[in-house]
């Protein structure tokens, strides 16, 4: 239930934000940026969020999820590539000396409210 915990987190942050900006009555859309390293299933996150927010002002809020691929950089040949299935092998030279260069992002890009 990884996605449920994340959904709860997002709800808490957005509630806090809405409290700070009193003019926002409803949140139309939340834009999220999530790196694939977190292995979040967008559908499951949306489902859990909707469930959690039943009978709250966020009931109809849309989660706009932008997924960022995990990028690796080979320490042997220097090439970078998108890592599929968390395979720590360079597709160019077969080296297993890989540095991770992205995909661990996790933040709320924006909260779009209805006034
Ligand atoms: Zn390589």
Outline of the structure:
The protein is α+β, with helices and mostly antiparallel strands and 115 residues long. It contains two helices and six strands. The chain has helices at 2-20, 42-52, and strands at 26-35, 62-68, 71-74, 80-82, 98-102, 106-114.
Q: Overview of this structure, please?
A:
- This protein is α+β, with helices and mostly antiparallel strands and 115 residues long.
- It has a domain of 80 residues: hypothetical protein PF0899 fold (2-Layer Sandwich).
- Helices cover 26% and strands 33% of the residues.
- It is built from two helices and six strands.
- The strands form two sheets. A three-stranded mixed sheet has the order 2-1-6, with helices on one face.
- Helix 1 packs across helix 2.
- The radius of gyration is 18 Å and the shape is elongated.
- The mean pLDDT is 91.
- The protein binds zinc ion (ZN).
- Zinc ion (ZN) binds next to loops.
- The site of zinc ion has 8 residues, from loops.
Radius of gyration: 18 Å
Order of helices and strands: HEHEEEEE
Order of strands in the sheet with most strands: 2-1-6
> Biggest sheet: strands, sense, closure?
3 strands, mixed
Judging from the principal axes of the Cα atoms, what is the shape?
A: elongated
- Distance N terminus to C terminus? 33 Å
What binds here, in terms of ligands, is: zinc ion
CATH topology label of the domain at 2-69 and 103-114: hypothetical protein PF0899 fold
Average pLDDT, rounded to a whole number, is 91
DSSP summary: helix tally: 2
Quaternary state of the chains: single chain
What is the CATH architecture descriptor of the domain at 2-69 and 103-114? 2-Layer Sandwich
- Global structural class: alpha+beta
The percent range for helix content is 25-40%
């Amino acid at each position: 239930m990884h996605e449920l915990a994340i959904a709860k987190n997002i709800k808490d942050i957005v509630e806090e934000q809405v409290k700070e900006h009193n003019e926002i009555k409803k949140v139309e859309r939340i834009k999220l940026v999530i790196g694939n390293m977190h292995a979040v299933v967008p559908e499951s996150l949306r489902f859990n969020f909707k469930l959690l927010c039943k009978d709250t002002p966020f009931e109809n809020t849309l989660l706009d999820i932008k997924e960022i691929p995990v990028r690796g950089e080979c320490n042997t040949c220097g090439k970078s590539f998108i890592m599929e299935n968390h395979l720590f092998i360079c597709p160019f030279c077969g080296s297993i000396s890989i540095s991770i260069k992205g995909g661990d992002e996790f933040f709320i890009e924006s909260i779009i409210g209805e006034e």
